[in-house]
Amino acid sequence: MIEYKEVKISRILNPTGIDLGEYVINPFMGCEYSCLYCYVRSNKVIAKREGEWGKYVDIRINAPDLLEKELLAKKPKCVLLGSTTDCFQPIETKYMVTKKILEILNKHKVYYHILTRSPAVAEYADLLKQGFCKKIYFTINNITPELKNKLEPKSPGFEPRIKAINKMLNEDISVIPYFSPILPWISDFKDIFSRFPKSNSVEFEGLNMNLVNINDIISGVSSIYPALRPGYEELLKDRTFYDSFWASIKKDIIREAIKAKKNYNIYIHNFRGYFTNKYN
Ligand code: SF4
């Protein structure tokens, strides 16, 4: 059961260190997709909000009005939508806050990037085709439904996501299929590039083993694949093993990219890298 609440905020354009925009815009606080590996779970501002992550969504109903005013004062060239929420989650169909925000950004000729894992973004194709959507990073994966149920139980299915990506690519909307997270000994890259015939590139991100709740993630994986637990625990402990494992993953992806004659980007997190949550 999701708790929905209409709230009023004092600011919608928030400065960010993410290099996809000068400011981030989050039309909601909370996200009902409830991914276990969500970076926002360790966000200090979000942590102050009562309630379990994934169980509430605050709808920032005055966000469009604020945006109109703040754009005039701050005059950004580019912003990022969806750093701490998914802007296209189910409640958007009722409130259309994100829709109004896209209309305002287009009207003011402000460019934007979008992070999402929701096929509902494709329903706004008319807005996205007006020349200001720079790129949509669309998260995909190919884990089994059983594992998905453990790790991102309420997010949209992978096939509808792939369909939405291809639909938007066919309409010349700039979308990057973003395969994340790569799950050790589970993720399968075979023919992954061929799922997106019109995309020149696919990007990949390894599981961030520095996440505060990595043990919950390992437990979720182990509940379906008990034999993988020792390997995951070794990755947590042994730098040499960690580095050689991810190097072999890179080789697997590069092999597929060469076969498909496509570009790729691969982000692998450093062993015990200090985890800073910059997703303000
Ligand atoms: S969809 Fe994004 S914001 Fe929502 S829970 Fe998943 S990772 Fe977090």
CATH topology: TIM Barrel
Task: Describe the main β-sheet briefly.
Answer: 8 strands, mixed
Mean pLDDT: 95
Quaternary structure? single chain
Which term fits the overall shape?
globular
Radius of gyration: 19 Å
Total strand count, please? 11
The CATH level-2 architecture is identified as Alpha-Beta Barrel
Q: Which kinds of small molecule does this entry bind, naming each only once? A: iron/sulfur cluster
Q: Into which percent range does the helicity of residues fall?
A: 25-40%
User: What is the count of DSSP helices, taking H or I runs of 4+ residues?
Assistant: 10
Model description:
By secondary structure, the protein is α/β, with parallel strands linked by helices. Helix content is 35%, strand content 19%. The protein has ten helices and eleven strands. The chain has helices at residues 44-47, 63-74, 92-95, 97-107, 125-128, 145-151, 158-170, 214-224, 229-237, 239-260; strands at residues 3-7, 14-15, 23-25, 28-29, 56-60, 78-81, 111-116, 133-140, 175-182, 201-206, 263-267. An eight-stranded mixed sheet has the order 2-3-6-7-8-9-10-11, with helices on one face. Helix 5 links the parallel strand 7 and strand 8 (133-140). The radius of gyration is 19 Å and the shape is globular. The structure holds iron/sulfur cluster. Iron/sulfur cluster (SF4) binds at residues 31, 33-35, 38, 40, 85-86, 117, 155.
